[in-house]
Amino acid sequence: MSLSQLSAIDEQRLEEEITALGPWFHNLRLRGVQTAPDHFLGDYPEVKFANFRDAIPADLSGKTVLDIGCNAGFYSLEMKRRGATRVLGIDTDERYLRQARFAAEIEEMDVEFRRVAVWDVAALREKFDLVIFMGVLYHLRHPLLALDLIHEHVAKDLMLFQSMQRGSREVAQLNGDYDFSATEMFDDPGYPKMHFVENRYAHDETNWWVPNRACVEAMLRSSGFVIEAQPEKEVYLCRRREIEVPLDGPHCVYPARGSGERYGDG
């Protein structure tokens, strides 16, 4: 049997395994085989990544990366290709994690994937040079708490952030304080607003909150992240800063857990 015939057999087997693990939301190229060639968003997320890939350091040698809501691992693998010493991808969906582990194995990359929710990042007991938090915020019932937890427990320096946005793209210039009788600013299209989805949006019951641009930027600042760049409309590169503990106590609140309970599934 010729080498070309062996290659064809290997490719067919790879295609079968990819199909068995589907459906895929990330269109990865594994040894040349695409995982989601008919994606409704096109070559996603590569087509989106092309708009901001240069905002991330090209050389991540010696750096650690945490990819929150990693899905099938597109960004985790990209960061490993940039030389990151350690890359950890976390998600709560077992199917996505199986896809990510499979992709890392096929690409022969040392990337770890674990089932951990954003609420449980404190259990990682590790801070990362770069935290990726993309496409997750609007799926959370408590989005500001998630940002506070990331700031307090896992962000050491940079955070790459993205959220779906709807509403005005304007950002109003607001005062530092207002009298109780002042209400006109709330009707300004550029006032920070978070739209609550009680049922579904885009046929997805996990879409809970959809912010406008002003709200995204205000939430990032409030949680202790300085916006350093906005390379794409919904994408921000932020740097962590220290924040004072407010008079009413720390931003983060944790649910009570019994002594026998564990964070995540390790």
Features:
6 helices, alpha/beta, 266 residues, two-stranded antiparallel ribbon, Rossmann fold, seven-stranded mixed β-sheet, 11 strands
- Helix tally? 6
Beta strand count = 11
Relative helix content: 10-25%
Biggest sheet record? 7 strands, mixed
Helix-and-strand structural type? alpha/beta
Any guess at the CATH architecture? 3-Layer(aba) Sandwich
Distance between the termini: 44 Å
The CATH top-level class label: Alpha Beta
Radius of gyration: 20 Å
With strands numbered from the N-terminus, the spatial order across the biggest sheet is 5-4-3-6-7-11-10
Low-confidence parts: 1-6, 258-266
Order of helices and strands: HEEHEHEHEEHEEEHEE
Q: Find the CATH superfamily.
A: Vaccinia Virus protein VP39
- What is the domain tally? 1
Reported by name, the CATH topology is: Rossmann fold
Oligomer: single chain
Shape, per Cα inertia axes:
globular
Proportion of residues in β-strands: 15-25%
Average predicted confidence as pLDDT:
91
Compile the SSE list and pairings.
Blueprint: H1 3-21, E1 29-30, E2 33-34, H2 46-49, E3 64-68, H3 74-81, E4 86-91, H4 94-106, E5 112-115, E6 128-134, H5 143-153, E7 155-162, E8 194-196, E9 209-211, H6 213-222, E10 225-232, E11 235-240
Describe this structure in words.
This protein has 266 residues and is an alpha/beta fold. It has one domain: Vaccinia Virus protein VP39 (Rossmann fold, 3-Layer(aba) Sandwich), CATH 3.40.50.150. Helices cover 24% and strands 20% of the residues. The protein contains 6 helices and 11 strands. The protein has helices at 3-21, 46-49, 74-81, 94-106, 143-153, 213-222, and strands at residues 29-30, 33-34, 64-68, 86-91, 112-115, 128-134, 155-162, 194-196, 209-211, 225-232, 235-240. The strands form 3 sheets. Strands 5-4-3-6-7-11-10 form a 7-stranded mixed beta sheet, with helices on both faces. The protein has a two-stranded antiparallel sheet with strand order 1-2. The radius of gyration is 20 Å and the shape is globular. Mean pLDDT is 91; it is low at 1-6 and 258-266.
